[in-house]
Structures are given as C-alpha cells and as structure tokens.
Amino acid sequence: METLFAILIGMFFAGAVYLMLSKYTVRILLGVALLGNAVNLLLFTSGRLTREVPPIIAAGEDVLTSSAANPLPQALILTAIVISFSFFAFLLVLTYRAFQELGTDDTDEMRLAEPRNEPLPPMGY
Description:
The protein has 125 residues and is mainly alpha-helical. Helix content is 58%, strand content 0%. It has three helices and no strands. The two termini are 43 Å apart.
C-alpha cells in the first residue's frame, strides 16, 4: 500500500511543479493547491498505514508497538489542511483582484513596474 501511495505522491509533486512553472496565475494557483495535497499525503504515509493496531500505548510499556500507526503525522495533517485551505483562499482572492485590475492572468503581461518604451528583458535562454 505504501508503494502505491509513494507513486501517487510522486505524481502529485510532478503535477504541482509542472503547474507552478506555468505563466498563467490560475494554473499556478492550482499547482499550489496540488502541492499542499501532496505534502499532506506524504505526511500521512510517513505515519504508517495500518488499521489493525490502534495507536494506544499498552499498560507497562513506554512506546507504541512497531505495527501501530503513528498519530503525530495525522495531527499534523489536520493543521496543514487548515493552513493550506486558508493560503489557497488568499491566493484565489489575490488572483481574482489581479485579474480585475489588469484584465489578464498572463504573468508576462503583468509587468507594471517596467517602463513601456524600453525593450523587455530576455524571456528565456
């Protein structure tokens, strides 16, 4: 099961990087959301995927058994979901306002700080 999740996490990270390298802000926004989901899934997988043994320390023992799931990554994921959702909402509003002001979601056309009469900097290698 962990192998399947590792492949899925790799696909999420690859898709997120691909989308975040785009020049359109909506794609960048979707890439950030996908990256947050990839990190959450990575944290979830790092805590072992099992349902058979509850994460309870037995009487007279100091640590969890090796077959029990670690509850700490699950608690971290709950916090990360809230943070990533609020970050996504902020970026969504920022993208919408930029589109309202500039009339485009192309980052190459959003060059307000550069003078209009001078040539553009190199766009690639």
